Amino acid sequence: MATKTGRPRWALRASAALTLGFLGSLASTCAQARPAAATTPQGDEIAHTVQEGDTLEGLAKAYLAAPRQWPLLQARNKVADPRRLVPGSVVWIPVRLQPAESATVEFVHGTVTAQTRAGDTPAPVAQGGKLEEGTALQVGPDAFVAVKLADGTVVRVQAQSELLLRQLRRRGRAGSLQSVLEMRSGAVESSVPPNAEAFRRFELRTPLAVTSVRGTRFGVAMGESGQTTASVLSGSVAVQSRQPETTGQSSHSSAAAAAMLAPGQGLAVAADGSVGAPRPLLAAPDTSGVPAMLSDAGILAINVPPLPGAARYQAQVAQDADFIQVLRHGSFSDGQLRWKAVEDGRYYLSVRALDDAGIPGVPALLPFVVKTRPVAPLYQQPAPGAVVASGAGELRCTQVPGVAWYRLQVARDAQFTQPVLDEQRLTECRLPLSTLPVGNYFWRAASLLQLPHGPANPVKPADPGGTAGQVDQGPFAPPQPFTVADRPATLSPQSLQTQDGDTTVRVHWPAQPGQRFRLQLAPANDLAFDKVVLDTQLDAPAWTAGNLPAGDYLVRIQVLDPTGLQSDFSPPRQIRVGSGINTGSGLPVSTSSGQPVGRP
Predict the structure, then answer these.
(1) How far is CA 350 from the centre of its chain?
(2) Residue 285 belongs to some domain of the structure
(3) Which DSSP state fits 31?
């Protein structure tokens, strides 16, 4: 959006500024920052301090497209004699008179739009496209764009950032590049290649700061409250603070303070414009525990342990080691890094801790592989930590559509250093455990595909699955523990002690602590227990019945072990329920068929 004067709304409104440059350029930086003795600048201009022998024609040749443009410099600076300039005075060089350059979109991910002129409709940015001076970039959430300038500088614009390519010019027809970028929000990381040209200019401005560098790798970020942070990974730089602007005062006002940032240092510019002292960057987080292969098809999850002094963490996932092709970016309150899943392939992680001032620390860089296809089966049985019966257990998992085989492994340890079972070509996702000794185990399952042959179905080079015609094994599902145990001993008829023949029947049997039981009762002629008259569960190894009709019955018991295992039913034992009617000798009265006489 343009103002009434035609200047873009991106114009710098600095209450303080931060200038970064090589140690050797500090003097020239300060010299160019002296207040002009002529007039105040209009728009984007370069201040040239006149040296002995300078002429407007010579300055036009050095700065502009052709020496014949010197009258334009004369009109701008109101110089009476173009051949006699006063040494120490300032000649303002309008940037608009310099030859224009463009930038190239090296990589784009997500929603990134460009607005070439104020009032134009923002258009999507495409990889390989050209960006002209004055283009405003808007990077959406979960988006990223890398822009390459004409001198090889790579600018990586992070998610939720706004950046204006304010100046893309060249000093003279074939001179050094003059680049000024202006941030309104977000974060930008820049890699400026070393260059011996003394007049090359690269500035990255925020409402509070100007970073001016030559041959270094650094980052600038704006916080929610407006503060600006700068961190330097390589290349010594100078830091220069500037006082708030006042009416009639040049934007090139003299510095109020200066500091040096060595490699591995950073500083913060507060919202009021005050510049903090340089401080060491936090060390790189520990990524030694990050697996070399990640297999979660739902999310991309990476965990790093807490780093002392860290207030937050920033992390990126890219397709290349230079982090030009960034696919995921995020800020996290702890080392639990979470993103939307990415496609199978090889990637690079960059994670750095932020200190209490919001200054990013040294990044930890780590290559890793994402491999989620073909997806692993889901476990069906046994349940996690369950106990299976020795000689009769089975591992079972779901079928996966399109999969050729399944691989099931069993090991004593969760790392599967020495699997005791390893079946690699199962057509069904199940594995009997009849030969597995009693003990504690882990099991895991994976799916296998037959990779297609021929050029019609090429395997992507980035896919770690293998080559065409071979078997592509997907990731194992997470290990799951289980235990193999002997069945509880089946109760023998001799172990049952009964007291029957009376109206009340009592039965008890030996048992182990914690066991429960299931008891069934059937008529004496029902050996198959097809006509069960009682089916109950008991907490103790004893049963008492006092309200059963008189007669003979069969009873059988099943042991319910605390492990979850169940024994077979014991062999049936016959019991008799009496009527309570006895002969004079105390024997129960029976019918001609031998059945107790029923109670009246």
Answers:
(1) 10
(2) no
(3) H
